[in-house]
């Protein structure tokens, strides 16, 4: 069991997300950097979808009430355990009474993942332990964590114990400022000039962004007259263009339907990068084909499988 001593906004329990329920109006939710969670879980011997904590701001202080093995991934939160530095991708152990302190991200606005051997044990809702902040269910009582909350940790498996004894570490992936995209279902309604504007200009994240949508600022995209169409299903990663002409990238907590035209979609292999877009830092979109997007997703899955095999090597 672990105790939340001090917290910052949007500290939540998340796993890899809630799938197969969008027809019921239920969003995906889950860790913004799902890839970091999967890698951290493999390092600890968890299943890849075991729940951890998403840390969106700091300072955060967590006290261990039992022996626990953990690993931080994502942004470097300048963390320490009893004043000893903790680095991303390097497992560490907490004894009863030990305190993990996350001071601040080295780059404001970036997120981190905290995985625990055994996984955070909260009730399953629609086949996921993720927190749905908008609908107020899942995770820990359907809300962000606050001081005094006590979180149960799952029982350790033989693989947990074996992996944690190996003391291996992995490198945190470094996101670049390029989001690869494929054309969206409404791109034919946008003029060639509007399409070129999307692909050839820099964009910035605004402070009004959240887990539902990342609002962008930059050149204005001319919205087609057909933008007043009926709502249809939407997914995380899709880039909507409202009447303002300033795009919005739908994120994990995005609604299941929307009426704004979708000019493009961030490919699955790059969705994890959305966790590290920060206000004031420019980034660009780069168009790829659907075949390239599928190949990149397959390569990412293959890398996870290679990591699993690497970490399993030498286990007894």
TrEMBL record:
Molecular function in Gene Ontology: ATP binding; hydrolase activity; lyase activity
Keyword Lyase: yes
SUPFAM superfamilies cross-referenced by the UniProt entry: Cyclophilin-like (SSF50891)
Gene3D superfamilies, per database record: Cyclophilin-like
Annotated protein name in UniProt: Urea amidolyase related protein
Assigned keywords, A-Z: ATP-binding, Hydrolase, Lyase, Nucleotide-binding
SMART domains referenced in this protein's UniProt entry, alphabetically: AHS2 (SM00797)
Domain Carboxyltransferase per the UniProt entry, residue ranges: 23-303
